[in-house]
Amino acid sequence: MKQHIPNAITCLNLFCGCVGTVLAFNDQLIDAGYAIVLAAIFDFFDGFLARLLKVNSPTGKELDSLADMVSFGLLPSIIIFQMLELTPAVEYGGKWVKYIAFLIAIFSALRLAKFNLDTRQGTIFIGLPTPACALFVLSLPHIALSKDPIISAYVQNPLILLILTLALSFLLVAEIPLMSLKFKNFGLTNNLHRYVLIAAAILLIVFFQLTAIPLIIILYIVLSLVQFNKLSQAL
């Protein structure tokens, strides 16, 4: 019976992605973002419970990727697509340019397929994890509603949205080593960068709520690059 518990949690991840997709197509982008947050929580706990109960299985691994594709690949693409729908058409692109948003879904699929086969990604990530990309995207509608008109207008600029889409798509499959937040132990020496990231993330969320997510993702990438640069120098 216990072997089905992680898969049930994974299915809740998928359910959140499906509900979020409906919400996004109904222009409820903030609520769609909350669906991503719930999906990310379930995505964390399905792996955690699988390791705790020692019931890892090939089926669970594939199911997890399929759920992630919907919650962290398709749903973020729809959010950006809907945001582009609300902006003036980009010059020379017209109404078709908004479909560029689905590059995130395509590159998420490539990233997830690669992750399942890449033996290097046991303790680290190669490329931006799909949940991190999705969390970045869910913050955009929140930033668009910012009380600061300059920041709000900046995020609602279709050119900025397209640049972000291309940048996130590239990061999903880039050969960049990024740290995993899985702790083998809680010692400070081996986890300094993780602790810095967690502490900074908590402070940023407290002060800026979900609009802080882009800063957290950028900090995550920078700390990872610093960490792995030091490791390569030590070797």
UniProtKB/TrEMBL annotation:
It is found in: Endomembrane system. InterPro entries: CDP-alcohol_PTase-I (IPR050324), CDP-diaglyc--ser_O-PTrfase (IPR004533), CDP-OH_P_trans (IPR000462), CDP-OH_PTrfase_TM_dom (IPR043130), CDP_ALCOHOL_P_TRANSF_CS (IPR048254). GO terms for cellular component: endomembrane system; membrane. Its main location: membrane. It catalyses: a CDP-1,2-diacyl-sn-glycerol + L-serine = a 1,2-diacyl-sn-glycero-3-phospho-L-serine + CMP + H(+). It is a multi-pass membrane protein. Its EC number is 2.7.8.8. Keywords: Lipid biosynthesis, Lipid metabolism, Membrane, Phospholipid biosynthesis, Phospholipid metabolism, Transferase, Transmembrane, Transmembrane helix. GO terms for biological process: phospholipid biosynthetic process. The keyword Lipid metabolism applies. GO terms for molecular function: CDP-diacylglycerol-serine O-phosphatidyltransferase activity. Belongs to the CDP-alcohol phosphatidyltransferase class-I family. This is CDP-diacylglycerol--serine O-phosphatidyltransferase. It comes from Olivibacter domesticus.
